[in-house]
# Entry
Amino acid sequence: MNGLSHIDAAFVVTWLAAAVRLAGPVLLAALGEIYAERAGVLNIGIEGTILLGALGSYMVAVLSGSTALGFLAGGVVGLIVGLLLAALYLRAHGSQIVVGIVFNILAGGVATWIYSLVMGNTSSPTITMLAPYPLPLLSAIPGIGAIVFSQPVPLYLTLLLTGVAQYALFYTRFGLSLRAVGENPAAAHAAGLNVLRIRTWGVLLSCLGAGLAGSYLVTAQIGLFRDNIVSGQGFIALAIVIFGRWNPVKALVAAFIFGAADALQLSLQLFESALPPQLLLALPYLLTILAMSGVVGRTVQPGALTQPYRKE
Amino acid sequence: MKRLLERRLAPVDSPAAIVAITVGAMLVAFILAGLLFMPFGGNPLTAYGFLFRAAFGSVRALGLTLVQGTPLTLIALATIVIWRAGLGYIGFEGCFLMGAAASSWIALAGTPQGFPLLLPHWLYWPSVLVAAFVAGALWAGWVGVLRVRFGGNDVLISLMANYVAIFLVQYWVSGPMRAPGDLPQTPRLPTESWLPYLMSGMRAHWGAAIALFATLWVWWLIRATPAGYEIIVSGLNPKAARYGGINVGKRQMSAVLLGGGLAALAGLCAVLGVQHRLMDGMSGGVGFIGVVVALLARLNPLLVIPTALLYGGLEVGGSAMQRQTGLPTSVVLILQSLLVLLIIAGDVLRYYRLRWPRQKTVQTPLTEEPS
# Structure
């Protein structure tokens, strides 16, 4: 009896630690996406941005031999992609849905092309991954210490950025402007805000987050690059933004719940459970549909989301 | 800072300008993508020559291109119907999968002999077509209800619904519908349930005829019927449409049901015409490429067929080229998306004119013309 409860406790700690691990990259991407959506831009292109960030991070890590440098490279790639996407969304007045979808296809092609150009057909070398770094003192807290504070550095960075995003969005002038532009661009313009510039910042930050999420995947979770490395995590990040109601701290909770479902699915497969693993895999998407459906209370999205703005 | 772009007083929207921008953007896309062959030691012209010969150069090649173009046509038509009604639905991967699953289910009912065992064979085609269409219509329909009745966000809901459909099919082929064996897939469908080939020695199947018929029908629907007119007006200006006595919600719902059904027929063609079994990961992005085809055709049903054949041909030619020469097929994906992105970017030229940095803008004084 006692032994069994021991196993259960160990199982729960392993499970929740895996949940935090899986939640990390998507949370980072979601944090960025919150800036864009709060500014009124639905950036569906983060799926492709994560892929390109992952590729950039992997290449730099392999060529330079420094994983940390690789991590930063993903962010740089994200910012470059952000400039392109901002131009298409905001200057060329492309439909956000169209640009996002098409960009994801483009990113898939570009990533494969660059990869085969640089690496050829040889099997890809793995990089030295960022190892878990138990934080002194904090990691000694029973339970939480093993689950949250014995993770690789990018996770701590993500947690830090969650706080930063919460503060920036709700307690700074920048955040106020960003939200104003996303709710009612015409009024924001009348109040003297530069709508296109502020929206550009939103898109850049979302791509920065997505690029770093790609780095996170490569440098702290997978250690190599493949075409299918992202496989829908960008869309999970979109789901987290909605489920977290465009709020960084709530997104943190949502990411953790989604990570927990994903981790449970992995361990259930080991146990040959009667529950189909697909049900747990589909859970994040089902929850998001429910949150977006308008059936259970109205999710109030930024008023001008997906609406292009043209200065008259 | 010197600005490169100078705002036009009025946007240029003559048909000639739009055609010029489209053709120009396509040329630039082909040139840019062509350059991507060079680091791999390929001459862009030779590469394109090979690609297009492999896609359009023989009866066999044309057949393969038709096979690729068929689902793209159907999904592009679905996009046109739904988007013209003013929705941003992008759940075509899901509709495709539901159509594929429904068709396989009908074809497999009563295995090992399949459908013919249960009912007279002449009923098979009507029932499989209806089943696929209805499955897709229902799959798109619930998203439509959430949007029209409850004000949900159809773009995001349909995007998430794609993944639900993917996992649903994954569950079916690894559980209830699984064939004995290692791979998660259904048994091979009985031969009588396959879409017949158009002619022997050519992989093209009767799905192409379904796509052609659907194209003409959608074109007729939106050009010549009151229902089509109401769908388009609902999309252009819902408020004005309501004022004009159109039941916008009802029209949007009929567009969603129709579009979902059309996209599901693409799944039917893939299962009954090509794969002959339902398997995990079948859709592989075709639902998104179909949307891109519709966009490149500027949401015009008649332009869908040439565009879908171009896109399908690029895929066929691209993979043939990779098998033969080792040049990367990823260039095809890049080309397919660049075509649309450059057309979007090209639209800037309708609102702005280019001003070269070194050229001084001479302010021509407004002089009276000698009369």
